[in-house]
Amino acid sequence: MFFGGLAAGLVAGSGTCTLAQGGLLVALVRSPGCAPTRPSASGPRLVVAFAAGRFVSHVIAGALLGVLGGAVRLGPALRAVLLIAAGVIVVVLALRLLRGARSGHPAGCDEPTCPDATAGQGRAPGTTRALVVGAATVLVPCGVTLSIEVVAVSSGSAAGGALAMAGLVIGSTPAFAVLGLLLRRAAATRFAAVAAAAAIVAGLWTAASGLRLAGWLPDGASTAASAATVAVRPDGVQAVTIWATAEGYRPGVVVLRANTPTEIAFRVADGASCTRALTFEGTDTALPATVELPPRPPGRLRYVCGMGMYLGFIEFR
Q: Cα torsion for 77, 81, 84, 88, to the nearest 10°?
């Protein structure tokens, strides 16, 4: 369990999880010109606290998944709302950072001091916030996380589920550490505006992914079908294979006969990341998997990766 999660975190989680959850690191970035009234937590300490919060929340989630099964998993609808909320928060924080970069003072401060130091506290300001923000990443799972959650559920035990999620977090933590340190360094230099602009883009992308996951954005897909090999078996079932790749689902649009039993084999190509988990008719499915559909009337069937990044369509005609 542990080594499977570790491999997923190293190979795929470093990219997809950082993209999906890394925007929350903006909450830990201090605007340039901000001099704390008391010594604040250093960049490395904040990154360690963020990683610790992320580790603890994911291990607890893994243990619960192992004991309670899919009952504690976030459904696509709730996940979409959380993605939208996370994107909005990231944009707001990035705008504050951008305003601070232009004025030379942190957002909300008239003086070049930081209001986050509380008298009488022995603990360095910012560490608690870093822990909380890191723990909150469990509410914005990336595609690889969704796949490991399935592994945690299948383990049937708290230990197995916790080990699977622990491996995932440990494998993807180096990428988060590098990103956090780069953000902190950029915020203290003349590149703060660039970092803020990048964070705004990341926040908008996260919110758009949530809207797409929920089906609240226009699909914008071409009606032209991609080349696909459709086989009709002797029992009358039409079968087609769709590959999850690093660039999306291939073929992206498949045309099948309406009113005919269908079998769709989803396979995973090398290098696939968030496409390893998809939402199919409101249900999360970890790939590889085979989906069987009863005869359907003419129309379009839409599916999307677990993070709302990539769409796929099946046209029944």
A: 180
Q: How far apart are CA 78 and CA 106, in angstroms?
A: 33
Q: For 206, left (φ over 0), alpha (ψ -120 to 50), or beta?
A: alpha
DSSP state for residue 34 in the 8-state scheme: -
What kind and span of H or E run contains 159? helix 158-187
Q: What is the pLDDT of residues 38-80, one digit of tens each?
A: 444 557 888 889 999 999 999 999 999 999 987 778 888 899 9
- Sign, CA dihedral 102-108-109-110, equals positive
CA 251 to each of CA 1, 20, 295, 314: distance values in angstroms, whole numbers, following the listed order = 32, 25, 21, 10
Mean pLDDT for all residues in the chain: 80
Kindly state the tokens that stand for 280: 């199919």
Q: Measured between alpha carbons, how far is 289 from 78 in angstroms, rounded to an integer?
A: 23
d(C-alpha 276, C-alpha 31), whole Å? 37
Buried b or exposed e, range 93-108, using 16+ CB within 10 angstroms:
bbebbbebbeeebbbe
Question: Which DSSP string do the residues of 176-228 spell out, in sequence order?
Answer: HHHHHHHHHHHHTSTTHHHHHHHHHHHHHHHHHHHHHHHT-S-----SSPPP-
What pTM was estimated for this model as a whole? 0.80
pLDDT single digits (tens) 187-223: 666 677 887 888 888 889 889 989 989 888 877 655 5
d(Cα 277, Cα 286) in Å, to the nearest integer? 4
Give Cβ neighbours of residue 269 (< 8 Å, ≥ 6 apart): 243, 244, 245, 246, 250
CA distance 312 to 215: 12
Question: In 10 A of CB 74, how many CB atoms?
Answer: 18
